[in-house]
Each structure stands twice: as structure tokens, then as C-alpha cells.
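*** Fold description ***
***
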Amino acid sequence: MKPAPLRLVFLGSDAIALPLLEWLEGEGAPHARLTAVFTRPDRPAGRGQRLKSNPVKAWAASRDLPVFQPEKPDGDALESMNGLGADAALVMAYGQILGDALIAAPRLGTLNLHASLLPKYRGASPIQTAVASGERETGMALMRIVRELDAGPVADVERVPIAPLDTAAEVESRLAAACRPLLARTLPAFARGELAFAPQDHSQATYCRRLEKNDGDLDFTAPAPALAARINGLFPWPGCTVELAGQAVRLGLADAPPGTVPGALPGTVTGADGSGLLVAAGGGVLRLRLLQRPGGRMLPAAEFLRGFPVAPGSILPSRPMSPLVRAQAGRR
């Protein structure tokens, strides 16, 4: 006998969850019925600092779903969850720490969607860090949520390739779409109590932190491929910048073509080709493909250079780059 759709509560705050929510409302409806949403409180935004709903709240409100926005998911949140009679809860990019009682409140427990090939890149910025680290594959993992940071046992993974010229924005879009086949495979077995979960190898875990504005600094003594990966991985936020003619120029895309520039100091502009502005880096050449001057639009290099010429021999100052990954235990 086919099981009834799961009564599902969703906990999330970020736009990456919207394709999944749309799927649950449509093709995924035979597997799960969304009964309520928990999301972060409205925050001030814009010049007027008016309170603004996050994308998940706006989506849920447009469908008249119950929305809960606890400042902290504590006693009141637990009472609300218990009152919903949920079969399961699903967390994705919520941005809140859940207590054990809330995790255990739904009848079948709480699942989490994490955007990495666990145990790699546990933590707050797995998409950006995977791209910035030069990975050629990532994925969306479905796991049981536990108190330790992204350390729960994993049921299944939907793998997603990372192409050399992908930015974090493009990879995030593919990961968002990857949730749909992943849950189509796993939710029916989960509802029947037949979904198997395998423990992670904690000795292989790495952790990525919340990104900060100064993570966009670049040290041109680093290898060119590493610089290109960081530029692409940190786009659109926080975004890498370089100083050109006293202005902070934002970078949107880069690669590292073959070749070297013997004798050139790291950070020296060596010219341009049909695809980008060429800069000497540690052990190679960095090609800046998309650039944006303050107040302007992100432009292909050739178009950017027509309005903002950069003379060969110009030096782009280097700044220290903070590590994005650590390999030590972390807890929620």
C-alpha cells in the first residue's frame, strides 16, 4: 500500500530552497505535504532600513502557509512544532541552531539538506568554498540532523559537476535543482521507514566558515589557478576586488591560461587578450574575464578596458588571503 504523503515542516531562509519548495508544491506532492515553514525573522534592509521578509517567508506567505519566525528556535518554537503534528521536518539553509528537543519533535525526526559532498565542507559556506578550492564536483547531501555541525549520517547524495568557468552563483543554481531528484528518490523510502543512513568518516571532515567582506582580497604571489578559483568561488558575494588606478574594481570571473611571464613581479598587468586582462601571478598567468568599476556594471574585459584602460606594467597590490577551510572539530 502506498504511504500517505508525509506531513512536512520546512525550516529555511535562503533563496536556494525555492526550487525545492516549488517541487514540493507540485511534482513532490505525492511524497510530502508542506504544512508550515519556520524561517528567520524579518531584518532591516536597504537605505530606509525597513523590515524585509526573506525569500522563503515571502514564498510561504504567498501560499497562505503558516509561518513561524522565532528569534531563537527554543521553547516557543518547540511548542509550535509540537502543535503541528508533523511526520518530519526538513532543514535547508535555515541559519539557526536547533536544540535536541526540536530536532526530535517530528514523529520521524529531522532531516537536513547540505550543499557539499560530506564530510567535506561542513559549515556555513560549502558552495563558495568548494568552487574557491578548485573542486570539480560537489553535491547535495540528505542527512539526519544531529547536534554536531553537519555530522549526521547521510542517506543519499545528488552529485553536481563544477566546470572551470563556473562561479558559485551558477553552482548554487544547479545544487538547488539537485534537491528535487534527491528527495524524489529518498522520501518514499523514508516514509516507509526503509531509508538507510550511513555514518560519515569524521576523520576526513573539513569545515568552512561564514564568509566576510575581506575574503575578497587577493595575494598575487599565490598560484594563478588558485586565484582564479577564489575569484569564481566568491562571486557574487563577498566578491574579489583589485585596486586599479586607485579604484576598487570588482571581479566576476577568471581563469588561468597556460604560460608564464618570466621575471614579472606578481600582480603585474602584462597585457590583454580576446578574453581578459592578463596579470602575472605565482607560477603562471591570471586572466580576469569580468570586471566592474565602482558604480558601473559587470563587463567583459574587452568592454571594460575600452572605458577604463589599464597600461601594461601596472601593478595590482597584493593583500593577504584568509584560509577558507579548516580541518578540526566544530560544533553547533
